Each structure stands twice: as C-alpha cells, then as structure tokens.
Amino acid sequence: xxxxxxxxxxxxxxxxxxxxxxxxxxxxxxxxxxxxxxxxxxxxxxxxxxxxxxxxxxxxxxxxxxxxxxxxxxxxxxxxxxxxxxxxxxxxxxxxxxxxxxxxxxxxxxxxxxxxxxxxxxxxxxxxxxxxxxxxxxxxxxxxxxxxxxxxxxxxxxxxxxxxxxxxxxxxxxxxxxxxxxxxxxxxxxxxxxxxxxxxxxxxxxxxxxxxxxxxxxxxxxxxxxxxxxxxxxxxxxxxxxxxxxxxxxxxxxxxxxxxxxxxxxxxxxxxxxxxxxxxxxxxxxxxxxxxxxxxxxxxxxxxxxxxxxxxxxxxxxxxxxxxxxxxxxxxxxxxxxxxxxxxxxxxxxxxxxxxxxxxxxxxxxxxxxxxxxxxxxxxxxxxxxxxxxxxxxxxxxxxxxxxxxxxxxxxxxxxxxxxxxxxxxxxxxxxxxxxxxxxxxxxxxxxxxxxxxxxxxxxxxxxxxxxxxxxxxxxxxx
Length: 479
Prior knowledge:
- This protein folds into 4 domains: about 5-100, 3-Layer(aba) Sandwich (Rossmann fold), CATH 3.40.50; about 160-315, P-loop containing nucleotide triphosphate hydrolases (Rossmann fold, 3-Layer(aba) Sandwich); about 320-390, Helicase, Ruva Protein, domain 3 (Orthogonal Bundle), CATH 1.10.8.60; about 410-460, Orthogonal Bundle (Arc Repressor Mutant, subunit A), CATH 1.10.10.60.
- The protein has helices at about 5-20, 30-35, 55-65, 80-90, 100-140, 150-160, 180-190, 205-215, 230-235, 250-265, 290-295, 300-305, 325-335, 345-355, 360-375, 390, 410-430, 435-440, 445-455, and strands spanning about 45-50, 70-75, 95, 140, 145, 170, 195-200, 215, 230, 240-245, 265, 275, 280-285, 310, 345, 380.
- By secondary structure, it is α/β, with parallel strands linked by helices.
C-alpha cells in the first residue's frame, strides 16, 4: 500500500490489517518499486497516483511488467477521472477517488481479490480439465464411449473380443445408459465397419409400419405404397442392424424376427420372393426379457437366439467415478456447438454432479451439461447453472438408501405399484396425454399403453372414468 501522506498511510494499513490482510506500507512509489524489484510477490498493490519523485502511473507500469499477476488499485484526489481512466487503460483493476469511505475501500479490495482468486481457480480448472481430456483420450475412451470405472473397462475389453464375430448380441440396461453407443462401438471395431450401421426403435412403430421398415414393401402392397421400398435389413446388408427396445415387439413380429435370424432371409410386405441378407444383429432392451419369457410375453426361442452374447450396461449411479469424464466430454461437445467460451466445471458444481443419483443416466447428464453451457455467463460452470434437482438431489448412500424390512418385501409387487403411481402422476401432469406421459417416464408409447390397460387406470377408485389422450387432445385425470 503506497501513500505519501503518513496519516492516510497509517489509517489504511490499520484498516487492512483488521481485515486480516498482510500489509506492507511504503511512503513513496520509488520505495515501492525497490520492494518489487527484489522479487517479492503481492496479490494487490494499492497506490496513490500523485506522489513526488515517481507517480503512481509510473509505478503501475513498472508493477505490471515486473509482476503481471499483481492486481493494482489506484487512488486519486483530483476529482477528475481522466487520470484514473488512463490507469485503467494501463492495466489497473480499478480506482477510488479521494476522499473515500473506508467501507468502500474494503469492498473494492475484497472484490478485486475475489476476482483474482476466481481467475486463478479457472486457470487451474483449465489445466485439470486439459489433463482429464488427455487422460480420457489415452486411457478411458473407446469410440464415443467414455468410462474409467472397472465396469466400463470390462465392457471395452468385451467389445474388443466380440467385435469381429458374427454372433448376435443383446445389450440390456436402463434407458439413457448408452446402449446404442455400445452397438456402434461394436460395429466400428468389426470387419463390417465399412458397411452400413442402421438402427430402429422397435417400440416406436405399430406392427404394420415396423414390418415395412424392417423388411421393405412392394408397390401397391398397402395404401400409400407408391413404390417398392428396401427394408433396413437390406440396407444394412454386409453391415449391422441395431434393434432397440426389442422387448416392445408383438408376438407376431417376434415370430418374423426369429425366422429372419434363423434363415438370414427376408420377404418384403406384399412380396413372394425371399432375399438373402448378410447382417450382424445387435438388440437392446431396458426390460427383463427373462421374466417376460416366464410371463409368456416374449418368445423363449427368440430370447435364446438374440442372447448369444449378453452385455449389461450399468446405470450411471453404479459407476460414479465415470461422471467427471462424461461431464467433461459433454462440456467440450456443447461449448463448441453452442459457441460459448465455457472452459471448465467448477469444483463445487462437479461435487453436485457426482452426488446426484441420475435417474435418467448418461442421457440426463448430457442434457444437464448442455443446459449449463447455454446458461453459464462465466468461463466455468458454477452450481447456479445446474438444475434445482441436481443441486438439491439426495446423494448416493444418503437418505435415499434402501433399507430392507425385517420381514422382507414382495419386490415385484412393490415395483409394480411404484410404476402405477408414477404413471398416474405423469398423466396428471400432462393433462392425460399418454404420449407425453410416456416421454416423461422414458417409456415407449406401446409399453405405456400396455401398462395403462393392465392397471385399469381409466376407471379407478369408483369415480368417473377419466379420459387419456394419445394425440394431444384434452384429457382429465381424477384422483
């Protein structure tokens, strides 16, 4: 702190020391220059502008060359801003006009040091994130998949072993865990990598359209069939076809898929000739197909045909050590797409990300990072840019820990009741529109409709039957 007037110098030094700052006072800019010349480092330099022998502006220029990291605050007593503006242009952090209020000086000093600390933190985060990016590229990345957990590294090794086989693979796991990324990684690491990879969600289409999409159709085979069309099995010839949500297929479609897998031939809708196809089949499901086989809702012979090599994708809550690497990958993706200079994720924000249980898995994490990048005004994502549910979410092992009752529990019945309650709540929130409710719960419309009928949701509690719409029309739900 540099001030040639002794009373002011002593007052400022006393005030700053009371704020727990370590202060070195100098009576002239020349003395301050000599102290800086010895190599001593200061977080902040507070200097009067008008002093004999050497001005504060000259000291500012020397300080910025000798110690660029030192922030400089200028004091001026002339009531004009011209000199102060010159100081700002030369690198000063701010200026204070004399006479000033001591509380004002405290605030300016604190604000300047807080900003300096934030810049320092961001610089460290950039280095840490750069190191993490390099670590991801070198050790924890497999195609578009990222993971440092043992579970993911085991999956990477399994992909390497099975990629060049022609065996059918079934990927299971919750919605949003990245099952299609696994399928693509298998394809791109196989001898079929130069051929097409095509995917389809089997639960998104009714049987008639699904059959046409998979096997193609002949001209005039149904209303609107203006020409002959290839199906996805033909399009994927010599490559890979990914059948997502295969558990949503109807019994009739299951028979047709089983025939294709056994004979490696397809027949277009409305056609009579069969066409041989050379296709690697990868399926995926978020359902328990073994239980569905026992319940007679999924064919046992098809199950064994597609479950030659099973791959189980863990939920994100089961591999929390992967969260930083995934978050960094999504940050890099969306800072480029959104064109915002968000370089890092603050330590506090990352702690919230790592503590959250992620019911929507990796897909939800990606959406959260995209949102944070879009909202963030600074160089690093801070907690305020995260959704409320992430900031207030219950951490793993906290109050949401599962405690099994002493007498045990009927787990299937309990899960069924949970599903019914969530479906009722979802329909109430969206006004009874089934497609929107299904989307909110991460379910396919086919699956949602099946359980809605199973739980008799349209006529419960003896009240008037509520109506549920699937096309956006109005609907009401009565408790």
